[in-house]
Amino acid sequence: MRDDELLTVTEVMARLRLGRSTVYDLIRTRRLPSVTIGRCRRIPASALGDFIAEQMERAA
Hints:
Blueprint: E1 6-8, H1 9-16, H2 20-28, E2 35-37, E3 40-44, H3 45-59
């Protein structure tokens, strides 16, 4: 996963093994940063990595 890569919501769903509404809820609550390009929502791979690291710290 490249840090400058932009992921679709579907790709994030697959990587986190979460449903669409859960991923959009993370975006809506700003726990998972995203950008909108036209009508498309994209999540920077680095933001996903940061989110996962934060969750791992909380679990420890």
